[in-house]
Amino acid sequence: MSTQQFERSTLRQIRLHVLPTDRYKTFAISAYIGRPLSEEDVTQTALVPFVLRRGTESYPETKQFREHLDDLYGAGFGFDIYKRGDYQIVQFRMDVINDRFVSSPESLLEKALSFLGEAITKPAAEGDAFLSKYVESEKETLRKRIESIINDKIRFAAERCIAEMCKGEPYRLHPLGELKDIPASTPESLFAYFKKWLAEAPIDLYVVGNTTLQEVENIVSRSFRLEREENPGYTRTAPQRRTGETHVVVERFPVAQGKLNMGLRTPITYGDDAYPAALMYNGILGGYPHSKLFLNVRERASLAYYASSRLDGHKGILTIQSGIEMQNYEKAVDIIRKQLEDMRTGFISDIELSQTRAMIANQLREMQDSAFEQIAFDFNAVLSGKERTVQELIDGVTNTSIAEIQQAAEGVFLDTIYFLRDEKEEAK
């Protein structure tokens, strides 16, 4: 396992994180740009990277933009938009081959970082406006992306459960924004927002490969032209706590299979010492094929087509997803509640404990084989303010006892039950 550490500095109000290693034949580059989730900005933030991928000042036509990537020996360029806690994160990614493996007369790392810097800070524009043809085209792309979630009832049910559970909280918002807000964006208004976004958002730039922090600093100083007074950090809010009755929501759509989702709150987040116990809790409950939900709800009781759980460690929210026959709603709710109660009472077998430890440890070790996975893991520390190595997390998981998992379970509260079912009237 790699013991090399990221080296860090701040330049042009950008936090730089460089992992010098000769382990990979390519350079992996990621730029994270964050923004607090808000109803006013969420759709504009989502639209910006779609427009940025269309062209730059030097390569204003999309065909030129893509041909330049081909000239960089087929360099990859892409982006993701997601949420971590109450932040909407845009991540730009590039990978380019190390110069040593091709006959390039110039530094491909420099060319890639220069290209990324221009893509982010010098987009194709006319005065103080994006090119109209790109904005209109990408508004349509974003609309289709959001509609695809609505049409995928598994994803739709998961989003609706979060929206109901987190009413009044930024976390209720989807990172791709809202359909109703797309038409309002114009080439002028989106460009003005883009400038504000770049001036105010936390920016973290990662490079993994056969380079040095000094080399990256030299390139970034030339390639990223930003007018920023500071680079804000990420502020952390305590997980929401709620008591009282579990909120139950039933919605009807023309669906053939019911989608039963549950939203649970935990006071434990990534920055807490008890985070390994929360990871183990989720793993034993529904993270893997040997987990309680999969075995008891799907396999033994044959009540669900799928049953699993997922933890957002930056928000303190755990969600359960399952697909069931309409008539099995009550039975499924009861048996899922039984699994939650078993976690609370520490009814955990040695096999569940050992298999979950092994699964989590293997996933963490495999992460070391991917430069982008190492970057994503390190970015958790930026978001949470808690630095821990992969090995420290593996050790934490390996040493977590049933009593510690039970203690984590005692803080878990079933907040919301969401059921997406068909439109047929139930028999009286």
Automatic annotation (TrEMBL):
Peptidase M16 C-terminal domain location: 186-358
Any one GO molecular function term: metal ion binding
PANTHER family given in the database record: INACTIVE METALLOPROTEASE YMFF-RELATED, METALLOPROTEASE
Pfam families referenced in this protein's UniProt entry, alphabetically: Peptidase_M16_C
Protein name, as recorded: Insulinase family protein
Lineage per the UniProt record: Bacteria, Bacillati, Bacillota, Bacilli, Bacillales
